[in-house]
Backbone:
């Protein structure tokens, strides 16, 4: 079953409207369909798109200031943590982790995933607020 469509009035500049008409002609698609599909494709994922385990930590980012969000975008694991994680991954790959190391690896993996989700969601919130967010390649290299 298809959900009912809603109507939205959008005021566009003459130049934007002309671009839409032109793209509509080229694509051989109605303007309203073109706009709806473009918006649908360009809307970012919401919190519901990530595993539920991380929802609370990520939801907490939504009320932060832009300065605080930028700190999350630039956050990194310590060099020692990265070294330990790499060491445990190597041992895991070789099949020689003991039970305590397996638990530590799981914990570090969860911490790494949370860091990645926080960085991405903080960047997304900043983008929604109309602020510049650097591409990952422009961020400082991991220690």
Residues:
């Amino acid at each position: 079953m298809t959900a009912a469509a809603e109507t939205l009035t959008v005021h566009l500049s003459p130049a934007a409207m002309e671009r839409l008409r032109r793209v509509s002609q080229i694509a051989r698609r109605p303007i309203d369909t073109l706009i709806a599909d473009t918006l649908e494709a360009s809307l970012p994922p919401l919190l519901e798109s990530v595993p539920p385990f991380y929802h609370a930590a990520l939801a907490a980012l939504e009320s932060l200031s832009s300065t605080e969000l930028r700190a999350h975008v630039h956050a990194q694991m310590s060099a020692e943590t990265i070294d330990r994680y790499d060491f445990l991954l190597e041992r895991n790959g070789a099949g020689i982790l003991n039970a305590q190391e397996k638990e530590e690896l799981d914990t570090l993996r969860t911490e790494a995933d949370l860091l990645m989700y926080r960085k991405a969601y903080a960047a997304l919130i900043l983008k929604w607020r109309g602020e510049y967010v650097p591409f990952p390649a422009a961020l400082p290299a991991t220690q």
